Amino acid sequence: MGKENIKPARTCVYNVNDHIVWSVKYRRKVLDMEIESFLTELFQEIAEEKGFEVVMMEVDEKDHVHVFASAHPKVAPSYIVKMLKGISARKCFLKFPHLKPKLWGGHLWNSRFYIETIGSISEDRIRK
């Protein structure tokens, strides 16, 4: 992350980035290439509509998703996760009805997620 990633806003200049990972409920390996393609496009639409940016998205081992997201400091990381998981689950079940029988209970995603803040400044630089 360099200075090219710094974004101006009305009251601040920021570079806030998060690496977010979550899995399919019961770790079912259901995320094939067609679903991954659909999710990639859908995540971009959701991000644009909700006011954040999905810089990168990748499905790993057909059972979990990695998202690299960037947002204004006023946008909570938990809001980003809530929007991506909630909207994508509903739309995936509508577009791919064959997923429902594999995921009893009507949940596509595990309720938990992992999040890590990605920074561009080292600890030594902050101390200076």
TrEMBL record:
Residues 13-128 form the Transposase IS200-like domain. InterPro entries: Transposase_17, Transposase_17_sf. Coiled coil: none annotated. One of its GO terms (biological process) is DNA transposition. One of its GO terms (molecular function) is DNA binding. SMART domains: Y1_Tnp (SM01321). It holds the Pfam family Y1_Tnp. PANTHER family: TRANSPOSASE FOR INSERTION SEQUENCE ELEMENT IS200. This is IS200/IS605 family transposase. The lineage of its organism: Bacteria, Bacillati, Bacillota, Bacilli, Bacillales.
